[in-house]
C-alpha cells in the first residue's frame, strides 16, 4: 500500500513521551503539533482549547452570515435558523470542553438571542425564557 508523504504525521502525546523519530521505509515521518482525528482537534498535551476556539469561530461566522442575509429580525425568521445552523457547532464534542470553555460558547448564544427583534433590552435569562431556549450549560446537563 502506498501512502502520500503529505498525509503522514506523528503526534507525540503526553509530556513524558521520548519523541522517537519514525520512518516509513527510507522517509522520515514529520511531527505535527496538532491533528484532527474524528473531527476533533487535539494537540500534544491533549488540550482542546483550539477545538473550542474553532467551534466558536465557525458558529460566529454562521451567525454573522444569518445577520447579514436576513432582512427581518423577527422571532419567526431567526429562531428556526439558530438551532439548525449555529447550535450544532457549539454542541459538538461539548462533553470534552465543558466546563472550562463554556463561557466562549455561551457568548455566541447570547449574541444570537440579542439579535432577535424585541429582545435587545432583556437580560440573557429573560431572552432565553421568552424564546423557549435553554442555556448551553443546561442543555449539556
Question: Care to describe what's here?
Answer:
The chain has helices spanning 49-69, 75-91, 94-97, 102-115, 124-131, 136-140; strands at residues 23-24, 27-28, 34-37, 40-43. With 141 residues, the protein is mainly alpha-helical. It folds into 2 domains: 5-43, no CATH class; 49-140. It has a two-stranded antiparallel ribbon. Helix 1 (49-69) runs antiparallel to helix 2, helix 1 runs parallel beside helix 4 (102-115) and helix 2 runs antiparallel to helix 4. The longest helix is centred in the middle third of the chain and has 21 residues, at 49-69. The radius of gyration is 20 Å and the shape is elongated.
Q: What proportion strand?
A: 5-15%
Number of strands: 4
Describe the biggest sheet?
2 strands, antiparallel
Termini Cα gap: 45 Å
> How helical, in percent, are the residues?
40-55%
Shape: elongated
Radius of gyration: 20 Å
For the biggest β-sheet, the strand order reads: 1-2
In N-to-C order, the SSE pattern is EEEEHHHHHH
Q: How confident is the prediction overall: mean pLDDT?
A: 78
Secondary-structure class: mainly alpha
Amino acid at each position: 500500500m502506498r501512502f502520500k508523504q503529505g498525509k503522514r504525521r506523528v503526534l507525540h502525546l503526553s509530556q513524558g513521551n521520548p519523541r522517537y523519530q519514525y520512518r516509513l521505509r527510507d522517509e522520515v515521518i514529520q511531527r505535527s503539533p496538532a491533528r484532527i482525528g474524528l473531527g476533533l482537534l487535539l494537540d500534544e498535551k491533549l488540550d482542546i482549547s483550539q477545538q473550542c476556539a474553532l467551534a466558536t469561530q465557525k458558529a460566529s461566522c454562521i451567525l454573522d452570515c444569518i445577520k447579514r442575509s436576513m432582512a427581518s429580525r423577527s422571532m419567526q425568521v431567526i429562531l428556526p435558523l439558530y438551532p439548525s445552523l449555529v447550535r450544532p457547532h457549539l454542541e459538538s464534542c461539548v462533553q470534552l470542553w465543558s466546563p472550562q470553555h463554556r463561557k466562549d460558547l455561551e457568548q455566541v448564544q447570547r449574541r444570537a438571542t440579542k439579535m432577535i427583534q424585541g429582545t435587545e433590552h432583556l437580560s440573557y435569562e429573560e431572552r432565553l425564557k421568552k424564546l423557549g431556549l435553554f442555556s448551553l450549560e443546561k442543555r449539556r446537563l
